[in-house]
Please model this.
Amino acid sequence: MQIKRKFTNKAEGPYNGIEFRKTTSEIRNPDGSIVFSLKNIEVPSNWSQVACDVLAQKYFRKAGVPKKVVKIEEEMVPSWLWRSEPVLKNTEKKKNLTDYDGEDSVKQVFHRLAGTWTYWGWKGGYFDTEEDALSYYDEMIYMLCMQMCAPNSPQWFNTGLYWAYGIDGPSQGHYYIDYVSGKLTKSDSAYKNPQPHACFIQSINDDLVNDGGIMDLWVREARLFKYGSGTGTNFSNLRGSNEPLSGGGRSSGVMSFLKIGDRAAGAIKSGGTTRRAAKMVILDADHPDIESFITWKVKEEQKVAALVAGSKAAEINLNAILSACNENREDLDRFDPKINNKLQSAITGARKALLPESYIQRAIDYAKQGFTEMEFESYSTDWDSEAYLTVAGQNSNNTVRVTDDFLRAVEEGSDWKLIQRRDGKVAKTINARDLWQQIGEAAWSCADPGIQYDTTINDWHTCPNTDRIYASNPCSEYMFLDNTACNLASLNLKAFQDSDGVFDGSAFSHATRLWTINLEIAVLMAQFPSPEIAKLSYEYRTLGLGFANIGGLLMSLGLPYDSNEGRSLCAAISSLMTGVSYSTSAEMASILGPFPGYKKNSKPMLRVIRNHRLAAMGERNKYEELTILPVPLTDSKNKDAQKIIELARQSWDQALSLGEKNGYRNAQVSVIAPTGTIGLLMDCDTTGIEPDFALVKFKKLAGGGYFKIINQTVPVALLKLGYSESQIKEIIQYAVGNGTLKDSISVNHKSLEARGFNQKAISAVEAALADAFDIRFVFNKWTLGEGFCSNELGFSEDQLNDISFDMLSELGFSSEEISNANNFVCGSMTLEGAPHLKESDLAVFDCANPCGRTGKRFLSVESHIRMLAASQPFISGSISKTINMANSATIEDCKDAYMLSWKLGLKANALYRDGSKLSQPLNSQTLDEDLTTSDTEVKPSILKAETVAKQIIEGFMANRLRLPDRRKGYTQKATVGGHKVYLRTGEYEDGRVGEIFIDMHKEGAAFRSLMNNFAIAVSIALQYGVPLEEFVEAFTFTRFEPSGLVEGNDSIKMSTSILDYLFRELAVSYLGRNDLAHVQPDDLMPDSVGRGEGEENIVSSATQKVMERLTSQGFIRSSAATSNINTKNTSNIEVYDYDNFEDEKEIDNSDVRELAHDNTQTLLKNEKLLKEDQVLEARMKGYEGDACGECGNFTLVRNGTCLKCNTCGATSGCS
Model:
């Protein structure tokens, strides 16, 4: 094939004109603790810090990269494409570790990727000349470097390690097809043939133990989950319950096996992480067990609710019985409820709570034996809690396959037959509307099942003569034959805008052609996890080219996401991409031949191509063998969009004519994937086909920290809409705020002075406003000082200690004045109400969620569906997307959304109603709280955390000892009971711990936000002088879920709760409390993740003083060092007498005593109070309100059917 240059020239190479810089990559928790750090990495100057972090943390090879390599000569291969092997100092070829390092430059990564692709492309005959190969190599590097396109994650992980560095290892049980002989070959190497595929579909036979059967599937799934890939399976082959077995007896049904597979998947952590395995479970609507499948997760969540409510009721009531029995310990009749009235009342309460009589008696028997408390474990609704782990169905996406016949039966209200799998007899007849109602109710209740439209999927199937399409990958974008795989790549649409902002269709077509070749080469070089997948993937050669950033592109062009113009441009780009890709596939077929399965399927494939072309031509009828007609691509009034439409139509003319002549090299060429991690790598504002999630973003700084900026497409869009520079400046200022009260109209320096504020107090307020989200968070006794608040402002002690106290309102400012000041200082984080902005232009800036604290606008459910419908006729596979619905949505709304999706020709749809998961707090309820007008209900999380902490610390220290701005500490990553938790510490220069940060990942839940706020309270207390020992004594041995085995920590192997684990870790690291560890220091080896080899030498060779300044005392865990450091005290800290705690009038005894004395119930109550405000803050920023499981930051956004972290790039999907 001939490869023309468009972005590079031969003389100057791929990096001409591109500037590079050295930077440090750090992934930090919200509290500032470092999760990952790599210094002096070389990156393009225009890359954002987030993109650099994603590349360094996710895709840089961290070890085994030789410092020197030698080229291995290979016949018929140009010398510049020869693979490399390490140059070893040892002549016996034994690895010398001094010769190895990790990647530290993007140029290394780009070279190993593009070099490997070019190497295999040359060997496979994809280039006419060496000049074409060199052009391809340079163009691919340029596009990677300029963030124009990126392949899926397995490519970054695996591709080129053998070719560029000679890295190899034993075979992992993979197979490949030898491209010369065409024979199936078992791989003898881990990396010689890389594994670039992310998406898999697997079959299952109605057989218990043989190959391809039920138990074999769990093994095949495990092999994929282990390496981080995702898989989907249609289980409709399995017999329903009570169907006869060949050996006699009756089948237990598909549900019994699904529960086994669910447990197996839950036990495997994909790719070495702790997220649940990426898995899709599909069942046809006519399966005998379909009703049980639909309501599966609904009933499992009901079990969770029962476990939570019942366990808490038992804990409260049983301990009430014990308390009543022990109230008067001298009274021998205290165990007789006829005499002890309190015991009688406690028993009555327990019976009202429906506790078993045996447990009531057991509590009394415990009391008789001298027990004063009964340890009855209670559960929470947290997604990774023991309650959820107890039930089934939590480790997969569930989907019902429906046909057009079923949906027409729903419309007509006719009967629907459930068919037995073996003999085809009718197992049951039900009304189709009743089954449809069950689907809608289940989706409304627990966000499952999704829907796949079987007839539409197979109407667009290119290879029906081989078999039908039964299933998809977990994210639903890849739909093809069972036992096949797909590798993905996505084009960044905004990277193809020219200097005037116009979308460059010519450049996009060029990139599409090269990346189609790239994905085809990946099939040639790939190895696969099973012989069946290797065989079929080679025979059908499916590709997954897609795009990202359509939302950002549309906004920058001034086009609303929910508009005919926006949908038309999306359709045009989708059409152009797939048309050029199929044209390229036909071009490759002329040289290399069509895919092996083409001959058998040539007629249906050409029919599908003709249907794609008709849709591109704007045809509304004339389609061949389609039951649901697609939404056609119609002409646009926008001349720039019309140019793309014309290019798209030309590409389909060429794709059809070349295909009729040559056939096609690939059965499928395109999907729209979530593009989570790679979307961040390309600095995309939006991913896949998604709209934007927020207008105000938080830009990461190279040295850590964030600052508020407007979405980069907003100023471009405003300029496109005709606003002046001065107007744009005011609009942006309205969204991001000024960060100061100076010049504020209502609450300002002058009005504060009039109310008694001196310059020192005003300066304290100003200093605290920089990162505030609400100015009322700043006006409190901790910012201003209790003496000033009492003596100068005249507030009472009770007022200052009341977390609901609104100082600004009490000072005489009205709700409107406070609201105006809030918008001036902190910004509205929305454009609604912005000066100069026309009401008619607001639609351009509509996002997936309401923006800011006052935003009300967000995209409708129908707008998402119609955008999918515009793109789907031009996509070979499907589109990954979950449609968010407001909490107020009804069951009918869910059913209507599914029905509209069918009528508009979608292949799949999944819904997520806010609050539909038991484990998720209602974001809508939190957002509906009017923070700008309520004077009595404001409960900011920082005030709550500081209140609890302050009550403990007032007896210790009058002044807060601030940590240095640049501080040391350590990060400990571990799993507790199978759930990941990050602990990060910050230290004073002398090594004392002064702050902690805690983060966990629980999708759809908010437990990590509670832990984050709890960490704030502990940190403040530590800075006021509360000894760490007090917290260790208070919180070790607390019991609640998650709990159990601890992995990833070298000293602690078991914990009774997250708090138990955290304070054991802190005690071991800072207090030398090895009695709380399960492994003694002498037994430890320095091989845990994240531990370097040089740090411990510092301890042994440096003086104590130098050591304290150089190293984190918690990280080195030196008993000598920690004992020396932690016996230090400051003169103004006095030990508090807890026995006299209640004598202090200014302290809330009920909170403090229980918090300080290991009362988990009160702790959970306090955490619950903190939860909604933490969720609110994340939601105000446009995030989901959940924390990332990799880095702990609250920056997760919806990404197709997955979640993506905008800080570190982690994704819950399979790519």
